[in-house]
Write a sequence for this structure.
């Protein structure tokens, strides 16, 4: 019996000795007009740059305003309706939910306003006059969109959509799904500042994420470190992407109700949620709210936390966070 036991145990020892050690792998690239960075732990290089690039290209063919012939551009040029693909359908469904939850603050039909203020695919050098804004507002509002059985239709021919405020978060979720399909369970995937995390590290340490915000003179800096083992973090801010008009900064975030760029105390909002499509969809909406209202909004919702950087009444930069976000911060 002793010899049988030894014969049984020796192959097991040999098998364990052949097992590859877990290593850290990194993939970096450029997609959707920005950089992406993926870090994961595995026994082998299971995920590839070619696989990530192919996935992101598919998403661009669906929802990029900068990609000629993309599905979103086909819809914007259409008079009535188009058949969506699975990417656009997923993003549209979530967009309608967030639009309803924010009482219209989040709105994907702002595309013509974004273009008019010079933040769209075409160059626009001059600020639009009030008459132009008024005419464009007649073509804004998600009440003019319908999604049913994969068919997206517009009630007015002038309706156009812009999914930039949510599609990048969705892209990060798809990268996460790609990694998990490859058997990767420990990773950090980042695209344009939108991040999806799954941990801990192989040694048991929690994943650490830097939370960015502007310092006193507006320069982007890491203001806090968050310790997170699952979920997503996204940031929306007006300190990176803006136009200068005299001494005034014109934000790329447009209020769908007024037609004008946001002009409140908010500088940036970082949102934590279970997935990046949710965090990304809500961060722009929270930027459009006043601080007190934004905090109350987040505190009243499960699985949503936020960190705010804002201007005080005296103009100084300050920050605050929701109760749940405080628990994520290490320093």
């Amino acid at each position: 019996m002793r010899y049988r036991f030894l014969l049984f145990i020796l192959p097991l020892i040999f098998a364990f000795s052949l097992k590859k050690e877990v290593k850290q792998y990194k993939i970096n690239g450029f997609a959707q007009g920005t950089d992406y960075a993926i870090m994961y732990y595995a026994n082998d290089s299971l995920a590839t740059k070619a696989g990530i690039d192919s996935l992101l290209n598919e998403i661009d063919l669906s929802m990029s305003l900068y990609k000629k012939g993309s599905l979103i551009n086909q819809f914007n040029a259409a008079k009535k309706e188009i058949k969506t693909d699975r990417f656009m359908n997923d993003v549209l469904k979530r967009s309608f939910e967030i639009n309803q939850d924010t009482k219209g603050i989040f709105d994907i039909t702002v595309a013509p306003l974004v273009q008019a203020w010079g933040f769209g695919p075409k160059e626009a050098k001059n600020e639009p006059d009030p008459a132009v804004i008024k005419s464009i507002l007649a073509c804004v509002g998600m009440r003019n969109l319908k999604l049913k059985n994969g068919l997206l239709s517009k009630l007015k021919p002038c309706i156009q959509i812009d999914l930039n405020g949510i599609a990048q978060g969705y892209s990060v979720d798809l990268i996460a799904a790609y990694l998990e399909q490859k058997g990767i369970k420990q990773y950090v995937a980042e695209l344009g500042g939108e991040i999806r995390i799954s941990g801990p590290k192989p040694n048991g340490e929690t994943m650490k994420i830097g939370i960015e915000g502007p310092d006193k003179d507006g320069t982007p800096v890491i203001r806090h470190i968050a310790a997170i083992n699952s979920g997503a973090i996204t940031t929306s801010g007006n300190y990176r992407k803006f136009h200068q008009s005299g001494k005034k900064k014109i934000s790329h975030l447009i209020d769908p109700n007024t037609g004008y760029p946001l002009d409140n105390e908010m500088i940036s909002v970082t949102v934590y949620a279970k997935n990046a499509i949710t965090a990304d969809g809500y961060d722009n909406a929270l930027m459009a709210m006043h601080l007190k209202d934004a905090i109350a909004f987040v505190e009243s919702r499960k699985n949503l936390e936020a960190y705010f950087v804002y201007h005080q009444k005296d103009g100084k930069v300050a920050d605050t966070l929701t109760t749940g976000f405080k628990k994520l911060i290490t320093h």
